[in-house]
């Protein structure tokens, strides 16, 4: 029978401890090398939808009517009847030229007309008596003809005096410079007390504001793709805005291309009842340029760029993220049109792309709707 000495017990205990440490290290190593679970990503199914493709253009707002206000009569400015930059209505009195000299001329013309009418009355009476006397041969034919001629001349003088009175009345009316159209008035170039010369002095500038025109130009390819004529609805926004709050309608297409730029000019009319738009502003215009009966649309966040190529991640049947090179088209309602590389019904990763460490990685898909994160803003520009 073998007897265990103290030395042998010590060696056995040390071996047991070493074995326990090795087992613990192996267990810890196994824990450290265990594969992490597949990442969760949001996935949306691609559907083919009929869409209208919109082209984006840069334009400028212009007023249909721009009027340089100049006086029709000369005189000193007696009154400026507007606040600079305000909206005025057709017929509002904007400037008043001292009317007193023209009022005096009108009164003089009225007096002259009254005198000429009095002379006509006398000449007519004498001509009537001459007819009776001529019938009795009481006067010579020469005298008879002279009195008839005097009546004719008196009538002509009355007509001339009436025309002079009408001219004087017009000049008196022209001392009030009125707004020929409704719109926004500029600053007064001439103030009270200054002399304004007829048909020469610029008093101010008036531009109509409702409706307004937006002019923009399109390249030849877009024109060929867009067979629409006038009365096409367009969407308009200002520079710096994200949306297109103004609705307009195409009302003019030029009849020839610009030979320097190779573009064709378009014009849209837009209502502006509150005067928010101003002539001279830059505008962004969207016009329908084509229609697709079955377009494949994906969230733009799902599309990434690798140098000059665009790609996205498509899920396989066993939930592996496969990298797919695609061709893109225009943006419609916040989604990007995929023209090649994708098929309807495929699932695309739209959120959580940073979790895809390498192509082919297994993921846990979380189904979402393709349009769920989109704002109710329509954006339609070429990529």
CATH class of the domain at 100-174, anyone?
Answer: Mainly Alpha
CATH architecture classification name of the domain at 100-174: Orthogonal Bundle
Give the number of helices. Answer: 4
- Arrangement of strands in the largest sheet: 2-11-14-13-12-15
Amount of helix: 25-40%
Straight-line N-to-C gap: 92 Å
Family: Belongs to the membrane fusion protein (MFP) (TC 8.A.1) family.
Pfam families: Beta-barrel_RND, BSH_RND, HH_MFP_RND, RND-MFP_C
Membrane topology: Lipid-anchor
Keywords: Coiled coil, Signal
What does this structure look like?
This protein has 383 residues and is an alpha+beta fold. Among the domains are: 81-97 and 176-207, RNA polymerase II/Efflux pump adaptor protein, barrel-sandwich hybrid domain (OB fold (Dihydrolipoamide Acetyltransferase, E2P)), CATH 2.40.50; 100-174, Helix hairpin bin (Helix Hairpins), CATH 1.10.287; 208-282, Elongation Factor Tu (Ef-tu), domain 3. The protein is 27% helix and 36% strand. The protein has helices at 6-32, 100-135, 141-174, 220-225; strands at 40-45, 48-62, 66-69, 75-80, 87-88, 93-97, 176-178, 183-185, 195-196, 204-207, 212-219, 233-238, 246-253, 263-270, 282-299, 304-306, 309-315, 321-332, 335-340, 347-351, 364-368. The strands form 4 sheets. It has a 6-stranded antiparallel β-barrel. A hairpin with a 7-residue loop joins strand 12 (233-238) and strand 13. Helix 2 (100-135) runs antiparallel to helix 3 (141-174).
Any descriptors?
single chain, 383 residues, alpha+beta, OB fold (Dihydrolipoamide Acetyltransferase, E2P), Helix Hairpins, Elongation Factor Tu (Ef-tu), domain 3, six-stranded antiparallel barrel, four-stranded antiparallel sheet, 4 helices, 21 strands, rod-shaped, disordered C terminus
